[in-house]
Write a structure and sequence with these properties.
This protein is of the alpha+beta class. Helix content is 41%, strand content 25%.
């Protein structure tokens, strides 16, 4: 893990004010908080934090993708959920000063995260109503993200789970040029996808290969393209496709 002081490439104050968590806060307080913040410049496979260590910071994702990962009793790893640009991590553990329940690992080629010390934020909560409302919004959003994980793994057969995951990624991170096409700038390995939907990597490969051969789903080094979003909806709801070419 490479940790370095924030440089001119990323403005800490702009990062704080641009986040859902810290936007609209007192300028002087934000400036003091930004001066205490640190940039993590990480690469694929590096840990943002280890399970069992005490949470002392919030994390703002500037770029890249971070997975929250846990181990089963058998020692197998599975991904609980994903966080990407604009997301805030580790809110509840940092507020409480408790241990991280799982590992946070970078699964994109690189990732930049802003570490924000929790102690000044906890101290300000006693008198800052705007901050309290922002914290509540973000914690509620985290609860929604975890509920989406339940929706994904309980969606049924692997194609439905995979379609539910893809539609969730489109809604959270996608860029669309019309109502039925989208690009998601997230490159996931087939193994990571399998962990997200609780499926074997081989099954994920076979399913995605069928989608790619059908011509409406393509992957690239930067992410994946979906040319027919309505097909994902049809798969999720178990409706037949309109033609064999789909």
């Amino acid at each position: 893990m490479v940790v370095q002081p924030l440089d001119t490439k990323i403005e800490p104050l702009a990062c704080l004010r641009g986040s859902e968590l810290f936007e609209g806060l007192d300028s002087a307080w934000s400036e003091r908080l930004a001066q205490k913040s640190v940039l993590q410049d990480l690469t694929s496979g590096e840990l943002v934090w280890h399970a069992g260590t005490t949470a002392k910071h919030f994390f703002l994702v500037e770029s890249g993708l971070v997975a929250i990962r846990q181990l089963t009793l058998e020692g197998n790893s599975f991904i609980v959920t994903l966080f990407g640009p604009g997301d805030s991590l580790c809110i509840a553990p940092a507020l409480q000063g408790i241990e991280y329940p799982g590992d946070a690992v970078v699964i994109s080629e690189t990732a930049n995260l802003l570490l924000v010390p929790a102690a000044p934020v906890v101290a300000a909560m006693a008198s800052d109503a705007v901050l309290n409302r922002a914290l509540n919004r973000v914690i509620i959003e985290h609860s929604k993200i975890l509920r989406h994980k339940i929706d994904i793994v309980s969606a049924g057969p692997v194609p439905r789970r995979l379609a539910t995951l893809m539609l969730n990624l489109v809604e959270r991170f996608g860029v669309s040029d019309n109502d039925d096409r989208a690009f998601v700038p997230i490159a996931l390995t087939r193994e990571s996808v399998g962990q997200l939907i609780n499926a074997r990597t081989e099954t994920v490969i076979r399913t995605l290969s069928k989608w790619q051969k059908a011509g409406w789903f393509t992957t690239s080094p930067d992410g994946f393209h979906i040319d027919r979003l309505e097909i994902l909806d049809r798969i999720i709801h178990g409706r037949p496709q309109r033609s064999s070419s789909q």
